[in-house]
Amino acid sequence: MAWRIDHWLSRVLTRGGFADQTTRGDKDLEGIELVELTAESCALLNQVASEVFDFEVDPIQLAAFIEDPRHVMVLAVKDRWVVGMGSAVEYFHPDKTPQLWISEVGVGVDYRGYRIGVMITEWLIHRAKALECSAVWLATEADNASAERCYQRVQPRPASSSVVMYDFKLD
Q1: What does residue 75 show for φ and ψ, rounded to 5 degrees?
Q2: CA 149 to each of CA 8, 49, 101, 137: distance values in angstroms, whole numbers, following the listed order
Q3: Cα–Cα distance, 64 to 52 (Å, whole number)
Q4: Cα–Cα distance measured from residue 13 to residue 9, given in angstroms and rounded to the nearest whole number
Q5: Residue 169 has pLDDT above 70, yes or no
Q6: E strand segments, the chain
Q7: pLDDT tens-digit series, residues 67-94
Q8: How many CB atoms lie within 10 A of CB 130?
Q9: Which residues contact 19 (CB under 8 A, 6 or more apart)?
Q10: pLDDT at 8 over 50
Q11: Count of H helices and E strands in the chain?
């Protein structure tokens, strides 16, 4: 499933999208496709721009991710280079309808400010609708200004002004 940038731009601009937002310009987005990560597309991960992922891609974890149908990843690809990615998990709970949790949205250092994170986030929301999820949610650090700008451009309703996260290291 590949989305071309011209499709995304026409959809966003026709609904009164981001014309008033300051960005580097739409021409810089030419040639970017959003490609779902699958066994067939995983070779794209051989060429990844700096800081798209936090660490090197681990082949064992990659295989486990691809094999689990509830894990979703979309790659932003330009000239066979992965310049961005978004990952999410469709999850179930005994007292809730299915929801999609967006785990991460990462964009390469040289590609930030081009709305690639917005494109990725919108793609994941579209996927959640196709999966018939009742909600999509994500969280980010309060001091992550670039993530805040990205998510606000997608126009969600903030759920709260503060979140406390606990990180249990299991080493």
Answers
A1: -115, 135
A2: 18, 21, 19, 16
A3: 20
A4: 6
A5: yes
A6: 2-4, 32-36, 71-78, 81-93, 96-107, 135-137
A7: 999 999 999 999 999 999 999 999 999 9
A8: 9
A9: 13
A10: no
A11: 4, 6
Residue 105 corresponds to which tokens in the numbers above? 């949205």
With tokens 């011209």, the residue in question is 6
Whose tokens are 């978004």? That residue is 86
Cα 32 → chain centroid: 14
Closest CA to 120 of 81, 90, 147, 158: 147
The pLDDT-based confidence of 15 (bands split at 50, 70, 90) is very low
Written as one letter, the residue type at 116 is: I
Return the structure tokens found at 18.
């981001």
For 43-53, how does the pLDDT look when each residue is reduced to its tens digit (9 = 90+)?
A: 999 999 999 99
Alpha helices in 56-161 (DSSP H): 59-67, 116-130, 145-154
